[in-house]
Amino acid sequence: MEAEYKKDMNHNFMILKEQGEEKIKTTCYQVRMLIGNSIPHLLPCQLRGMDGEMLFYYEITSLQPITVSFEKKKLGQEDLREIFAGSIQVLDALEEYLLDPDSLVMDPGFIYRSAQDGAFYFCYFPGYRRGIWEQIQRLTEYLLPKIDHEDNEAVTLGYTVYRQAMEADFTLDQMKQTLYESGTCHREESQEALQEEMEERVFLREEDVTSQWEEPEKKQSPLFPGIVYLCILAVSTAVFIGMAFLQRNGYLPWMNLTMILEAVLLAGIFAMAGTFFYRTYKKGKNAESLQTRETEETIKKEPKEEEPQEKEITKEEDSLQTTVLYEGETDRASFVSSQPERYKTIYLQQELTIVGKMKSASDVVIPLPTISRVHAKVRKRNGEYYLTDLNSRNGTSVNGVLLNGEEEYLLKHQDQVSFADADYIFWKT
């Protein structure tokens, strides 16, 4: 089944037409329920007539088909759970509204996912007729090669649902039970991991407390120098009084008070000077030791940065040749901003580059409120670059012309490309 895509000022639509010669009656129960209700997990639909044809307009603004959402990602257990859970939820909603599930389009290109909350939305087309369990079987066949085979739970879940879908008596309850069991296992493992993490945190906290108690034993009070100097002054005064007393009583006849005072002052000055120099030396040693320790910790924690002028930046391989890009290489493509003081140049160094404002889902982040979370993509194929808008709210345009959803545009040198109101020039050398 083929679809067309259209964009107006603020919305993106997927358009489906009547299939074959059989006309869809607009008064039938399925059409009235689809148009007149907001059914959970179904794409909102509008019915429009043109040239005697009935067109079904499905709202897909800020949504991407799972063929795009998981294009660069291997599917883990949680991803599979979300897809299967979304399928169960929409089938439950169809049962609630008494709608025929065979009209639900389970083709991966018609299953949409929100980049904002990860929710799944399905296309219900009254003119579509295909067995729902056959569609689920084909959906699992599409998902199996995309599973991360290092994730044992994902492999188990995917192949379990696939085997169930192959059976003639497969029911929705079986899929629910499988998801429930995988979720229970997942929660138990998560609790064990959380407990291990908490124990590790407690252990680290105990180490921190121990170090906090040990640290003050090595530190000196800021009043320590003044106390030392006062002690030296007090001792010097006591020595002077004692020697003056002895001289006055005839025990030190060869000395007078002036000589005693000079001797005591000289000894006090030497004591203070010695104390000062010792503290300065100690402080320098401590600072040097601290700096060495901090340097070692920084080296351990921080990864070594690559030197871009000596190492490869990336490799781009295709069926014809392998190209290695270096810092000084000129054969590459990029988007050069028309406002270089605000936006950096976007280098197209990968086979697929996603542009948006959501860091976790985009290769290139443009931090503007008008940019959608996943806004557009650029794919390199046979040395050419193709730009596609991903149903963004404010659109992607080339030379002033808005791109329709799913439309691939072959970029040419010096094309003016706008992601919403972020303007760039495509540069290919």
Overall description:
This protein is α+β, with helices and mostly antiparallel strands. The strands form six sheets. A six-stranded antiparallel beta sheet has the order 13-12-22-21-18-19, with no helix packed on it. The chain has helices at 29-36, 66-69, 77-96, 132-143, 152-166, 172-218, 224-248, 257-301; strands at residues 4-7, 12-17, 45-50, 53-59, 63-65, 104-105, 112-114, 120-121, 123-124, 314-317, 322-325, 333-337, 346-347, 352-356, 364-365, 376-381, 384-389, 396-398, 401-402, 408-410, 416-419, 422-428. Helix 3 (77-96) packs parallel to helix 5, helix 3 packs across helix 6 (172-218) and helix 5 (152-166) packs antiparallel against helix 6 (172-218). The chain is elongated. Among the domains are: 224-301; 315-428, Tumour Suppressor Smad4 (Sandwich). 41% of the residues lie in helices and 21% in strands. Mean pLDDT is 77; it is low at 184-191, 200-220 and 298-330. It contains eight helices and 22 strands.
Secondary structure tally, helices? 8
Given as residue ranges, the uncertain stretches (5+ residues, pLDDT < 50) are: 184-191, 200-220, 298-330
Number of strands: 22
The share of residues in helices is: 40-55%
Assign the CATH topology of the domain at 315-428: Tumour Suppressor Smad4
Strand order of the largest sheet: 13-12-22-21-18-19
Q: H/E series, N to C?
A: EEHEEEHHEEEEHHHHHEEEEEEEEEEEEE
The largest sheet is: 6 strands, antiparallel
The first-level CATH class name of the domain at 315-428: Mainly Beta
Shape field:
elongated
Q: Separation of termini?
A: 39 Å
Structural class: alpha+beta
Using only C-alpha atoms, the radius of gyration works out to 38 Å
Under the CATH scheme, the architecture of the domain at 315-428 is Sandwich
User: What would the average pLDDT be, to the nearest integer?
Assistant: 77
Binned strand content: 15-25%
